[in-house]
TrEMBL record:
Keywords: ATP-binding, Glutathione biosynthesis, Ligase, Nucleotide-binding. Its EC number is 6.3.2.2. It comes from Shewanella fidelis. GO terms for biological process: glutathione biosynthetic process. Belongs to the glutamate--cysteine ligase type 1 family. Type 1 subfamily. Signal peptide: none annotated. It catalyses: L-cysteine + L-glutamate + ATP = gamma-L-glutamyl-L-cysteine + ADP + phosphate + H(+). Residues 10-383 form the Glutamate--cysteine ligase domain. HAMAP family: Glu_cys_ligase. This is Glutamate--cysteine ligase.
């Protein structure tokens, strides 16, 4: 493979630059519905928002209270953010006085049993979605499942693939070349994933109600105000052992050294029994508790900060889609909700992600081994818990390197890509310059800004977030919705409810038979 500098040079002509610019992106943003006092909403998914089972833009994740807003795919960043904003603006008008919780970590939690599991209706598909979530509750507890995040879906243009393929040795078919190149991107992303919580981690503090008994927790929390727990140098507690982790999965060893390796690993993982989960039981006294007793009930339970994806056809499982036609796009899953944005992410972050992911694609990406995998895991853990610590050292290729010097060299590469993407507006270089301030000054990171603000104002994290929730509610409620846009959302909601009703009216097999057929090898 050509070196990074060679590739950048080969992509500097006008046609190649246009091919680079023609990236496709989509965003999925999660947000809890809360009442005005900040407590978790207990009512059903608002009917005005349609069916969570079938609506393309507005659904729920784990909990009935956990909304998820999904954009279509866009090439233009302004159109992408506008679409996400319109969905938020329509939704807040139909929350019956409730607000959206604008950070990743939840608050004001009472009994975990009061966290309502999402309901998708009486169809076999809807029952399976709910049972999967019920299984997550038995396995990991409900609290972990109401942590919110932002997912960023990304693909490069067909024109860029044609150009990169022409510059390769063409020993693979174009389809295989694309899949293997995406896996190269994924490997480099995992080597550098710590960069995202460093810059964009926005959960360095949390409400004490999230930790039911702080004395039994081994995190050395400090306290701000009356009920805010924080770690002095943390960036993203969402990505720590307090958040989305699964120790049962530690031994799966799924390889990212190519599509075939990945599919073999995933096939093995979804059929691997778990002694711990078997103790829960699958069907107890005639009632299901989980889909099965394997380490993964289904592929979606595999917690990874990035996923290789393809749009499924029919009832395909994710790995079946990949096996059919290769990787179509990747899903970045290491992003906290940005509390400084009413929609959880802002344009300079998107532009940074573009640069970051293109860099991961264009840099050489050798296969990883067990030693490097351990290094990748240790670096991420260090940054999540103490990423803003002065002089923090990470490990690269078995050698210690300071976080700041590694970041500086990364930003130099990103600047070369930014020059290719920019026209007279210099949007990418401006975005890069904004986040470059955080290389030597951790206070410029999102987590640094949050801790600095909480300390200066001596305000509880939960009080601050409630203020933001109210501010964004009013801001989004006032956001202009044309009659045509409003009508489109109303029609989409109505159509989704009709579609769910039609699915439920279909004659179908029993749920037992449905599950047996789904898991049939």
């Amino acid at each position: 493979m050509k070196s990074f500098n060679e590739l950048v040079g080969k992509l500097s002509d006008p046609a190649s630059r246009q091919a680079l610019k023609s990236m496709q992106r989509g965003i999925e943003r999660e947000a809890l519905r809360i009442d005005k006092s900040g407590h978790l909403a207990q009512d059903k998914h608002p009917k005005a928002l349609g069916s969570a089972l079938t609506h393309s833009r507005i659904t729920t994740d784990y909990s009935e209270s956990l909304l998820e807003f999904i954009t279509p795919v866009f090439e233009d960043i302004d159109e992408l953010v506008e679409d996400l904003t319109l969905t938020h603006a329509y939704s807040v008008r139909h929350l019956n006085g409730q607000r959206l919780w604008p950070v990743s970590m939840p608050c004001y939690l009472g009994d975990a049993g009061d966290i309502p599991i999402a309901d998708y209706g009486s169809s076999n598909t809807g029952q399976m979605k709910r049972l999967y979530r019920k299984g997550l509750t038995y396995r990991y507890g409900a609290q972990m499942q109401i942590i919110s995040g932002v997912h960023f879906n990304f693909s490069v243009s067909d024109q860029l693939w044609d150009r990169l393929y022409a510059l390769s040795d063409q020993s693979l078919s174009l389809e295989d070349f694309i899949s293997e190149s995406y896996f190269g991107l994924i490997r480099n992303y995992r080597r550098l994933v710590w960069v995202l919580p460093y810059l964009f981690g926005a959960s360095p503090a949390l409400c004490s109600t999230f930790i039911q008994d702080p004395k039994t927790n081994n995190f050395p929390f400090e306290v701000i105000g009356n009920g805010t727990l924080y770690l002095p140098y943390a960036t993203s507690l969402r990505m720590s052992d307090l958040g989305y982790t699964n120790q049962e999965q530690d031994n799966l060893n799924i390889s990212y050294n190519g599509l075939a390796c990945y599919l073999d690993g995933m096939k093995s993982a979804i059929n691997m029994p778990s002694a711990n989960f078997a103790k829960i039981g699958v069907k107890v006294d005639g009632e299901y508790r989980q889909l099965n007793a394997n380490i993964l009930q289904i592929e979606n339970e595999f917690y990874s900060p990035i996923r290789a994806k393809r749009v499924a056809k029919g009832n395909e499982k994710p790995s079946e889609s990949l096996a059919r036609a290769g990787v179509e796009y990747i899903e970045v899953r290491a992003l906290d909700v940005n509390p400084y944005s009413s929609v959880g992410i802002e344009k300079s972050q998107i532009r940074f992600l573009d640069l970051f992911l293109l860099n991961c694609l264009l840099q050489p990406s050798p296969a990883t081994d067990a030693v490097e995998e351990a290094e990748i895991s240790a670096n991420l853990s260090s940054v999540v818990l103490e990423g803003r610590k002065p002089g923090l050292m990470l490990t690269r290729g078995g050698e210690e390197v300071s976080l700041s010097s590694w970041l500086a060299s990364l930003f130099a590469s990103l600047k070369e890509i930014a020059k290719l993407l920019d026209d007279e507006q210099s949007d990418y270089q401006v975005a890069l310059a904004k986040w470059h301030k955080a290389v030597d000054n951790p206070d410029e990171t999102l987590s640094g800004q949050i801790i600095k603000g909480l300390k200066e104002e001596q305000i509880d994290h939960s009080d601050w977030v409630l203020q933001l929730a109210e501010e964004y509610h009013q801001q989004l409620k006032a956001y202009p919705l044309s009659d045509a846009v409003n009508q489109r959302y109303e029609q989409d909601a109505k159509a989704s409810l009709e579609k769910q009703a039609a699915i439920e009216a279909e004659v179908s097999v029993s749920f037992d038979e449905f599950l047996a057929d789904y898991f049939k090898v």
